[in-house]
Amino acid sequence: MEKLIIALIVVGILIGLVFFFAIFQFLNLWIQAYFSNASVGLFEIVAMRLRKVDVRQVVAARIRAVQAGLDISTNQIQTHYLAGGDIRRVISAMIAARGAKINLPWGVATAIDLAGRDIFEAVQTSVNPRVIDCPNPSGPRPTIDAVAKDGIQLKAKARVTVRTNLERLVGGATEETIIARVGQGIVSTIGSAHDHKMVLENPDDISKKVMASGLDAGTSFEILSIDIADIDVGDNIGAKLQADQANADKQRFQAEAEKRRALALATEQENKAKIEENKAKLVLAEAEVPQAIAEAFRKGNLGIMDYQRLRNMQADTAMRSSIAGDGGQSGSRSGL
């Protein structure tokens, strides 16, 4: 009986020690929160442990928030923790925003964090504006190439100073959109210039026109300034295009001339064929004359005297043709 009592006492002591150490951990966190004026109930700490919440991280975040003057409850912090958010960066961002006098409610901060954006970096960018190179140095092109109306190519580089717009951070376009829009604006401005020298003389005109286009609409940033860092003269694209066009016109005209020559040759061959065809028809028609005369004799439409007159007329015509030819030669001889 005595051994059983001793065993029970030992077990009770062990249970008491385990309970004491467990309570001591909770009590330690409760004391830290209490003396930091960040009230966290002891049973609330136990409940967080049962919900598998990192109690130390939540209590530390609560203490930091209260010390910075932020009214954020323990329930809000552990809810964001259970949702998978980073409560340390959210609290740090809100403290930085309060110091910079930026309005950042708890709901907006947690929404930005759960959306996958770095809320602390966003607040830092709001306080300290960020410079974006345009085009991106890691991109396929080192410069933004555009052609003025006189055909001269200009190669430009720009630097865009932006700060984060916290209200548009969730759902807003990223810096890639800013780079693309600024590049588009530079190309459009240079392309509308009548002379590349005007662009080289006043590169700030590009910045003014691009800034006036409202390129930050729908993005997560607010553009503060656009500065042309470098602008160089490239190739004479206009001359190259004119040379290519002249070469293309030359080839087109040569093709058209060759087409007309082939058409003329084909027409000539067709005319020769028609001449031969008409000669053949003439021979056939002349061959039908004796047949017609014979038919006229048979039907009595032509008498012998008529035929004799026809022969005399043919002979007279032949003689006159011969005399006309000889007369021309004799006349030429007398002229000599």
Would you kindly provide a written description of the structure presented here, covering whatever features stand out?
The structure is a single chain. This protein is of the alpha+beta class. The protein folds into two domains: 2-127, no CATH class; 130-240, Band 7 domain (Tetrahydropterin Synthase, Chain A). It is built from twelve helices and four strands. The protein has helices spanning 2-35, 42-50, 55-67, 74-82, 87-99, 106-114, 119-127, 175-191, 196-201, 204-211, 237-299, 304-335; strands spanning 130-134, 144-147, 152-164, 221-236. Strands 1, 2, 3 and 4 form a four-stranded antiparallel beta sheet that branches. α3 (55-67) crosses α4 (74-82) and α5 (87-99) runs parallel beside α7 (119-127). The termini are far apart. Mean pLDDT is 81; it is low at 327-336.
Task: Annotate the secondary structure layout.
Blueprint: H1 2-35, H2 42-50, H3 55-67, H4 74-82, H5 87-99, H6 106-114, H7 119-127, E1 130-134, E2 144-147, E3 152-164, H8 175-191, H9 196-201, H10 204-211, E4 221-236, H11 237-299, H12 304-335
Antiparallel strand pairs: 1-3, 2-3, 3-4
Helix pairs in contact: 1-3, 3-4, 3-5, 5-6, 5-7, 8-10
Average residue-wise pLDDT: 81
Which bin fits the share of residues in helices?
A: 55-70%
Number of domains: 2
Amino-to-carboxy terminus distance: 177 Å
* Poorly predicted segments: 327-336
Order of helices and strands: HHHHHHHEEEHHHEHH
Counting helices, strands and paired strands, the structural category is: alpha+beta
Q: What's the total count of β strands?
A: 4
Strand content of the residues, in percent?
5-15%
Q: What's the number of helices?
A: 12
Task: Give the overall form.
Answer: elongated
Largest sheet: 4 strands, antiparallel
C-alpha Rg (nearest Å): 53 Å
